């Protein structure tokens, strides 16, 4: 039960129903309507655009094409990726979306959470190659963390649908005992050698039932760290822009930082990953 009789927006909070919470844990995702209003989007949209236009310097590999190699020129990007934008533009810290995402995370996975990472993703119009490979987020992250429980909130800054490459998920796949095998999409067979590209990919099973998650501007999807998900290319004349905020337990985030894991593509991998056990 939500902490208030009011569901939806309530100041810095966005209150969920018991049914929404149960659905998240059963299916591994939910879609929440009208989480951020138009005036609230306006408070950070221009900053978002500066990243997507390639106007924020000094990011290194934190600014790349998430559907291609690191050395792809900006003019040829299809899936524009800016990791940890709040690190490079601190005025984003504590914005209304972060606060509402934290409220949602507390209701879904507990009060002892903190923001783990943020990310901007944008599929350029008419870019059929702007695909996000099938994967589980946990496949990218280190082993040894106190827990892996995560809420990843993805805010739509444009209406997202099948035409412009909305999120696709395999409901219930987060409940599988084992992580699925992943491999680098564009690199060598060494799963920890991601010098050419950060992208990992996993295979679907024949019995997987894929669900598309269309989301309106200002609404969000929230997914579990183990759910199999990805997205297709953008076949439309429209952008598909997404603002991601992920929360984990403070204990886990502290452990990550202690071993040098920040979610930056500039990190030098010196920690054990979940993928090593899948070789």
Strand content: 15-25%
Characterize the largest beta sheet: strand count, sense, and whether it forms a barrel: 7 strands, antiparallel
Q: CATH topology, what is it called? A: Jelly Rolls
Spatial separation of the terminal alpha carbons: 43 Å
> What is the 3D shape?
globular
Q: What is the multimeric organization of the chains shown?
A: single chain
Provide the CATH architecture.
Sandwich
Q: What is the β-strand count?
A: 15
The number of distinct structural domains comes to 1
Looking at CATH, the homologous superfamily is q2cbj1_9rhob like domain
Briefly note the structural class of the backbone: alpha+beta
Q: Give the rounded overall mean pLDDT.
A: 91
Low-confidence stretches: none
Helix content: 10-25%
Strand order, sheet with most strands: 3-13-8-15-6-5-4
Computed CA radius of gyration, to the nearest angstrom: 18 Å
**Number of alpha- plus pi-helical segments:** 6
SSE sequence, one letter per element = EEHEHHEEHHEEEEEEEEEEH
Q: What is the C-level CATH assignment? A: Mainly Beta
